[in-house]
Records
---
Amino acid sequence: MLRIFSLSLFSLIVSCQTKPPYAPPPRPALVESVAVEVGEFGGRPDVSAVVSGHLSSTAALLVDPRQSREGQVISLEVLEQTPRATTLLTDLGESPPFETRIPIGTLGLEPGRYTLAVNGLLAEFEIPPIQASLLVPGDRPGPPDPAIVLVDEFIPIQKVTPTSPSP
């Protein structure tokens, strides 16, 4: 009876154990510098943050950053995560450096000055006003005549221009 009781107690204890999560939760990475690049893509502002710093260990990896906005301040949280059951290299004198380019969401942002806050570092940038241009249909030249005309779907036929006969 005692044997059955101890066996059932042992199996109950083993079955109630919880496994640790696959990986510890992400934590902020050590960011040392931030630069903001403002460009244009398809008539819209294209803003990217170039972030560099150091990871906490040789096994740590950058994960997707978190972005939020409050007024004219855009906050970007650069995160790192160390997978479970990884081996850390102890012979490195310093933690590994990183540099990454992170696109900043500009949907709904008006032209003006903004502040980017990345893990405690601040960088200012400006979204320029949109430059609209008016296209008048007569101002554009038409497409040039093609040198090859496609008569059949598979056989290209070269366009021949008639020449005047020589006397």
---
Amino acid sequence: MLLTAFRGPRGKATSLSFTHVSSGLVLDALAELARRTGAVIMPHECPVLLQREHDRRHLPDDDMRAPAIVVPPADWSGRAIEQVVSPLPEPPQRPVLPRFAYHSLVGVVVPTDEPCVCCGQVRGWVYTGPVFGAEAPGAGICPYCIAFGKAAARYGATFNDVIDGDVPDEVAREILERTPGIPSWQSPRWLTHCGDAAEYLKALDADGQPTSYQFRCRVCGTSLAYSDFT
């Protein structure tokens, strides 16, 4: 039930009650009536809508006073009422993405509400870059299963193909099995410097012109890049 209460003659209160109220013009008309009469709107099992803060003291008990919402008269509308009676759902809170030592995650992770094909959990994010392996799914892996090595262990998957230089075996395994790949027109190359794999930063694409893949040395900070032709 939605109840509109407003002051009548000599300070007395009068009211209108409704068992069903639809959205659109009906709520707009109700909001206009409340605005013109200085009314409060009291939705069933929802916070009371007030036009002025001092109206809070006229409510009958603390259970109604504390959660009451003040909406300035200029902002009263059917939409304002509807937001209280049927509020829009809050967007889901995305967990913090895992930290990858060699990848910035630019261009390879997007939000999703679907479960990961590897771990079966709704992680809030999905990896969209390349996946290599005969048994590996081509899509739907969350970045956590890459970071923790679960996708590599379950499917024999790798996410990068060519390391351009010599690095320790443990670094090579981290790049191949536990680091997101680089979306590329051709087989992507992972650059190295100072005996370590470089950190991938981003790709620069110029509409069919050579694409530059930007890296940075994790040891000395040198900027590195290579170009890929379509």
---
Amino acid sequence: MEIFVLFIGLGVLAGVIFGEANISFFAGITENLIGLLTQFGSNGLIGFIALLLVISVFKRSTTTA
């Protein structure tokens, strides 16, 4: 699980440094993350509850590994 988080961070960093059009493997990561956060934010309380569930699942999987 930690390696996926590392790839996401690397993709965001590469997208910021080189631009989205210049990288093929990490293309669209920042756009997808912004879209995901926008969906959580636009749904109000339900989005907040869903975000808490995602965070709790992520924390649970990192503590057991």
